[in-house]
Each structure stands twice: as C-alpha cells, then as structure tokens.
C-alpha cells in the first residue's frame, strides 16, 4: 500500500498494519509536520481548528490524527458559528495548499473571536504553493489569459486559478497541452502559464511548445524564487 502525499488518518495506518500490508509512506514532509503538530497540541489538552476544504484527502488525513477535539472551518462565516469547549485552550492548523489570502482572512476572524488562539510556530502553507501564488500575482496583471496546468481535483492548482481571477484576469485549469482549445487564444496578446505544485515540468513544457505551434512569437520566463528543496523517496522505494 502507498500512502499518498496528502497523508492518511491514524485509523488507515492501523488498518494497514492489522492487515499485514507492506506500506510505502509517501506523505509530504510538510503535511507530516502538520500531523505532528496536531498530535502535540492534543496531548497538551488543546482543541484544534483546522482551516481547509471539507472532503479534501489532506483534510481527512489531518483531522484523522486526533480522536475528537478538532473542528473544520472553510470560511469566515464558519468561524462565527464555531462552538468550542474552552476558548482559552485553542489552536489552529491549516491545509497546506490553501490560498494564502483566503487563509489570512479566516485566521484574522479566528484571532478576533478567540484572542488566545495558539498559532503554528511556522506557517503551514506549503512553500511551493506560496511561491506559485506570489508568481501568479506578479504575472497575471501582464496577461489577458492565464493557463494553469494541473488536475481538476488539485487544491493548489485551483487556488492558482482563483488568484488570477481575483486580479480580474480570465484563468483556466487544464490537464495538459492536448486539452488546449485553440479558439481560446483568439484575440489574446499575452498568455500566462503556471502549474500546480505537483504538476510534472514536462507538462508545462509541452503546453509552451503547443502555444508556439499556435503562433506564440516570444516566450518569456519571469523571475521568481528558485526552489532547491529535495525530498527523499519513501523508505523502501529506493531499494
């Protein structure tokens, strides 16, 4: 069995062990950090508010690190409806692939309603998610269409599309170059291209090549933060 990068609940781990399955744990280390944080906070007797999207596998995995005492909020309105046992013993964590701006609004609402709420020592938002959202904010105002390469089920890819749209620029999420409809390019002068954090680079390059085939005269790579983080393969897969 392979645990995906999103991570899994403790019950899933226990079930795999009970079945005697050989497990390859591919949980992203940044997600593992949040899991460890949840366990530590619960041992300290704190209740936890998780900011995330209901039904997302990462959210299900993180909330499954504790047996009760953890609440999910998706919006500022959810914060207003939240009922906890002890407002003085409260902390929050976040899904790693959220929109930084949306997350900031919810954190602000939590701080206003629960002034004593404890924060993560280091922000939970994935550095790759943050970097791509920052890049979209730089790029989108220069474009009249933004194409984001990523899966329709990818939270961080959808957030990139939303960041561009919030800047008033039309944005589309596509899985690969074959899904690009040439009609979308009619009348467009500048096309921006980005990708979800887990989209293979080859898909981005194939999309750029397709845009060239359809008439793109110049391709410019914008300056951005270089990412040098490398994560090892899950134990056992490198054997």
Describe this structure in words.
This protein has helices at residues 10-18, 29-43, 57-63, 76-81, 100-113, 127-139, 155-166, 201-213, and strands spanning 2-3, 24-25, 47-51, 70-73, 90-94, 145-149, 171-174, 191-195. By secondary structure, the chain is α/β, with parallel strands linked by helices. The protein has two domains: 29-113, 3-Layer(aba) Sandwich (Cobalt-precorrin-4 Transmethylase, domain 1); 127-213, Cobalt-precorrin-4 Transmethylase, domain 1. Strand 3, helix 3 (57-63) and strand 4 form a beta-alpha-beta unit. Helix 2 (29-43) runs parallel beside helix 3 (57-63) and helix 6 (127-139) packs parallel to helix 7 (155-166). It starts with a strand and ends in a 26-residue tail after the last helix.
Cα radius of gyration in angstroms: 20 Å
The tally of strands reads: 8
Which structural class is indicated by helix and strand composition?
alpha/beta
Strand content: 5-15%
Shape: globular
If classified by CATH, what would the architecture of the largest domain be? 3-Layer(aba) Sandwich
The CATH topology name of the largest domain reads Cobalt-precorrin-4 Transmethylase, domain 1
What is the straight-line distance between the termini? 16 Å
Notable traits:
three-stranded parallel β-sheet, 2 domains, Cobalt-precorrin-4 Transmethylase, domain 1, 239 residues, alpha/beta
